[in-house]
Amino acid sequence: MSGSSSYPRPFENFGTAKLHQLTWEAEGVLRVSFKRGPVNSWVEPMWRELDAIFRHVATDTDVFAVVLSGEGRCFTAGLDLGSDSLGQVMEDAGPDVARRAFAMKRWVGEFQAAVSQMERCGKPVIAAVHNVAYGLGIDLLCAVDIRLAESTARFSVKEVDAGLAADIGTLQRLPKIVGNQSLVRELCFTAREFSAKEALDMGFLSQLVDGGRDAVLKAAIDMAKVVASKAPVALRGTKELLLHARDHTVQQGLDFTALWSASMLQSEDIPVAMAAVMQKQTPKFAKL
């Protein structure tokens, strides 16, 4: 990072983002905020930009942790139902059913991959939710690491009300996050709204914060500062091992961890961290 040490300040490593606001909130802490008023409804250029941002984050050694938020009235109201990107995809593919199907599958896969970039980027991602997170908002939240919400926030797996099954990750990730198949199916079949308190009780959120958007954003940034102070090799390893464990058996996870540790236990971060603990000092780690 270069320039003034004061925060917040613009994040200039990525270049120009049109539908997101990118801000350094502290050393190593990047905030990625949806910026498509009035309710951050999603169109194709928005998720393609999100994909590009998190592909950059994955290789940016200045970024240690990310806060995900929404500008304006809410976190996100979900997809912009007035957009017809998929219709254009089918039109471009022509009248043949098979070719339309291949084009649709490719488009949906690219959309899924864009949201999954937050999971794959290797950096911890903390979401700060205010007001509402509907539809695609749940897909996005399922792909981050930690979810905080202001206490009056509201949620909904909204897709069935638009005549479709959620297809960008909610149906795959939410059951594993919540661990209650009956409740997940109820939420997904009915599209009913659920409160921040219910989201906390079911295990979808880790914290509720009183005080609205500013308060939950501050809580997320403060948490990200703590995360960003940790050894980057340890952070990367913890995220990758947790993701592997989610999708594999216990023994497969242990075997993968043993292979990981065979190399990563040789990291210089370990003696740096131990020395800092012994000397009661703040460690300074090399970038990863």
- Sheet-strand content, in percent, reads 5-15%
| E-strand count | 10
Q: What is the CATH level 1 assignment of the largest domain?
A: Alpha Beta
Give the uncertain stretches in residue-range form: none
CATH architecture of the largest domain: Alpha-Beta Complex
Identify the overall geometry: globular
Could you give the order of the helices and strands? EEEHEHHEEHEEHHEHEHHHH
CATH topology term of the largest domain: 2-enoyl-CoA Hydratase, Chain A, domain 1
Radius of gyration: 20 Å
Mean of all residue-level pLDDT scores: 95
Say which CATH homologous superfamily of the largest domain is assigned: 2-enoyl-CoA Hydratase, Chain A, domain 1
**Count of helices?**
11
Pathway: Lipid metabolism; fatty acid beta-oxidation
Family: Belongs to the enoyl-CoA hydratase/isomerase family.
GO molecular function, one term: delta(3,5)-delta(2,4)-dienoyl-CoA isomerase activity
Keywords: Fatty acid metabolism, Isomerase, Lipid metabolism
Overview of the structural elements:
The radius of gyration is 20 Å and the shape is globular. It has 288 residues and is α/β, with parallel strands linked by helices. It has two domains: 9-228, 2-enoyl-CoA Hydratase, Chain A, domain 1 (Alpha-Beta Complex); 232-279, Lyase 2-enoyl-coa Hydratase, Chain  A, domain 2, CATH 1.10.12. The strands form two sheets. A seven-stranded mixed sheet has the order 1-2-3-4-5-7-10. Strands 6-8-9 form a three-stranded mixed sheet. It has helices at 44-59, 85-93, 97-120, 136-142, 170-178, 181-190, 196-201, 212-228, 232-246, 250-264, 269-279; strands at 9-10, 20-26, 29-34, 65-70, 125-129, 132-134, 146-150, 154-156, 194-195, 207-209. The protein starts with 8 loop residues before the first strand and ends in a 9-residue tail after the last helix. Helix 1 (44-59) packs across helix 3 (97-120) and helix 9 (232-246) runs antiparallel to helix 10 (250-264). Helices cover 48% and strands 15% of the residues. Keywords: Fatty acid metabolism, Isomerase, Lipid metabolism. InterPro entries: ClpP/crotonase-like_dom_sf (IPR029045), Ech1-like (IPR045002), Enoyl-CoA_hydra/iso (IPR001753), Enoyl-CoA_hydra_C (IPR014748). Belongs to the enoyl-CoA hydratase/isomerase family.
